[in-house]
Design a protein that fits this description.
metal ion binding (chains A, B); 87 residues; 30% helix; homodimer; EC 3.1.-.- (chains A, B); magnesium (chains A, B); Alpha-Beta Plaits; alpha+beta; 32% strand
Chain lengths: 87, 87
């Protein structure tokens, strides 16, 4: 399965969330990571993130794409944060 | 085509970016919108956004999924911003 993760968390927890997510996924933009995961790794990632975030304040959104990935990715403006572009 | 948009722009331009993007897409999280678009509408959306953003400072990322959409969407923590969940 291919997963896109977008986080929106309090600045106090950003570095922890990012560090954890980067163990599993590639960082592509300030608040966006993506990558191929097994179901087991995806569950593990979510469990680890749930331990970090404040569920009343933070939000982490996942898009699960099956094995197909996406057709293409485009960006306008500057490339931020993510140094792990694979294309 | 199905488009997921993630913006990361200076707070001074957030409301303009959001207002423009919402003419074309559904707002699903603080900085995330998505929806079905024609190629022509997608080009128009990008042109409008390019007129608003500062290309040296702001960043807008698009995932283009073809007509397939995604397998599923999951969220942990709070649902933020987007009041346009369609599921």
């Amino acid at each position: 399965m291919y997963v896109i993760l977008v986080y929106d968390v309090n600045v106090a927890r950003v570095s922890k969330v990012l560090k954890t997510a980067r163990k599993y996924l590639h960082w592509v933009q300030n608040s966006v990571l993506e990558g191929e995961l097994t179901e087991a790794s995806f569950r593990k990632l979510k469990m680890e993130l749930e331990r970090i975030i404040d569920r009343e304040e933070d939000s982490i959104l996942f898009y699960v794409l099956g094995s197909q990935r996406y057709t293409r990715r485009e960006i306008i403006g500057v490339r931020k944060g993510g140094e792990e572009w694979v294309w």
